[in-house]
């Protein structure tokens, strides 16, 4: 009897090729598509999923997760932005929405595994003696960062068919097998804000989008901003004012509706506090390890150590850096393995 796999299908080239590879390996593949809002674009995605499913003779189940997505992701995004932070909802969505529901579907349909078209790899035999995500692609192409919250228990039941492939190889394979999505563009930006995040915030945080003052680090007024939620710590472009020197946003004060501008040095940190952390190895092991911390997806990372101070987990860098934005995820690696992470406070 064939082993059964629940495949998350988006309508893009990655999950389509994942379906092909799983079938080729002898699995019985059941496709599942989740939509988080109802638009023309999401209807087109569902149509594409059905075409892919038809090509491979797969059963496709489609579900609307609009309510769950609103409650867990959009609400979180708006709340944290209202606090002057720059939240990154994708890692939370992957863990608490997408994979959570894939596993529910696997249980319902008595499947052995769940699978997606992520560029990630699961290591079951490694120096940590724990099932962990392993970075095998170029660090900016690998998606382990986004999946860092997945537990070893879940990882043991996840298949990533694209683990050993690069994007160009996936597209080439899609062309070879005649997939109509072979040249389909990758999704960009925040999925629930196709009109752009600033327009989304102007609509949903209208009461907080009010003009306020840019000030320097001595409190002198430098000009006006258009609403603190539209800006992010470390930003230097698009400020809309002229200054004698290059300035960066070094502080956002929602209570006063003030944004402080300063020099690059003011952004440098040698440690960050973490909240909502997940650790895939015991802290007693991690605290003795030299870890690589990536404070944003685009970062190649900085070395340091994880410590506990007054009941709070804090990451101490060996060298200062300016990449730490409250609300973003700091993901921890030992060698090439994802060992945990959390949200920068």
TrEMBL record:
<protein>
    <recommendedName>
        <fullName>tRNA-uridine 2-sulfurtransferase</fullName>
        <ecNumber>2.8.1.13</ecNumber>
    </recommendedName>
</protein>
<dbReference type="Pfam" id="PF03054">
    <property type="entry name" value="tRNA_Me_trans"/>
</dbReference>
<dbReference type="Pfam" id="PF20259">
    <property type="entry name" value="tRNA_Me_trans_M"/>
</dbReference>
<keyword id="KW-0819">tRNA processing</keyword>
<dbReference type="GO" id="GO:0000049">
    <property type="term" value="F:tRNA binding"/>
</dbReference>
<dbReference type="GO" id="GO:0005524">
    <property type="term" value="F:ATP binding"/>
</dbReference>
<keyword id="KW-0820">tRNA-binding</keyword>
<keyword id="KW-1015">Disulfide bond</keyword>
<feature type="domain" description="tRNA-specific 2-thiouridylase MnmA-like central">
    <location>
        <begin position="198"/>
        <end position="262"/>
    </location>
</feature>
<dbReference type="InterPro" id="IPR004506">
    <property type="entry name" value="MnmA-like"/>
</dbReference>
<dbReference type="InterPro" id="IPR014729">
    <property type="entry name" value="Rossmann-like_a/b/a_fold"/>
</dbReference>
<dbReference type="GO" id="GO:0103016">
    <property type="term" value="F:tRNA-uridine 2-sulfurtransferase activity"/>
</dbReference>
<dbReference type="GO" id="GO:0002143">
    <property type="term" value="P:tRNA wobble position uridine thiolation"/>
</dbReference>
<dbReference type="InterPro" id="IPR046884">
    <property type="entry name" value="MnmA-like_central"/>
</dbReference>
<keyword id="KW-0547">Nucleotide-binding</keyword>
<dbReference type="InterPro" id="IPR023382">
    <property type="entry name" value="MnmA-like_central_sf"/>
</dbReference>
<keyword id="KW-0808">Transferase</keyword>
<keyword id="KW-0067">ATP-binding</keyword>
<keyword id="KW-0694">RNA-binding</keyword>
